[in-house]
Amino acid sequence: MKLNLGCGNYKMDGFVNVDKFAYCEPDEVVDLEVFPWPWADNAVDEVVMSHVLEHLGQETEVYFGIIKELYRVCADGAEVRIAVPHPRHDDFLNDPTHVRAVTVEALAMFSKKACDEFVAQKAANTPLAHILEVDFEMEDMKFTLEQPWLSKVQSGAMGDTDLLLAIRQHNNVIKETSVKLRVHK
Questions:
Q1: Which residues are 166's β-sheet partners?
Q2: Using one digit for the tens of pLDDT, what is the confidence trace for 26-57?
Q3: Helix, strand or coil for residue 77?
Q4: Which domains, ranges and CATH numbers included, belong to the chain?
Q5: Residues 102, 88, 93, 126: is their CA dihedral positive or negative?
Q6: Does residue 111 sit in helix, strand or coil?
Q7: Fewer CB within 10 A of the end CB, N or C, for the chain?
Q8: Whole-angstrom distance, CA of residue 107 vs CA of residue 105
Q9: C-alpha–C-alpha distance, residues 64 and 55, integer Å
């Protein structure tokens, strides 16, 4: 089974398109903040969550419940693709329905390998993968740059060091963050 969670009006062929709101006519109406989700353990091979996760889990325990349910329904080796607006972009800041900033660093806390590295380094990062008993290994991440930053990088006028500095100092550098996670059970 493949799930397109929080599909809104963006339906994907070959996926079960799921949304909380019936008006967008999903295949299944499901509130992802209510547990348990209606799918069996290990039943899902692929999940897409495009511009959804930032709308969910304003309360930390609800967010953790979403992560645990996602892990429960996914089979070993399942692929989870998540796209979110960058928390320092106007797209994130201007939408009053956005309740949670989602970053690559925060998603890494749901990887047992990353958590083991945090512990070995005596880092302050919370080993959430072990605490929540989930394991999502990050396979890929991509940042979509906003103009004029994209043109500066493409032309060679700005290197990686300068780009990292800009990301830390300015809003509207990164428009979107996309990650691909792999479920390990």
A1: none
A2: 999 999 999 999 999 999 999 999 999 999 99
A3: strand
A4: 2-145+175-183 (3.40.50.150)
A5: positive
A6: coil
A7: C
A8: 5
A9: 14
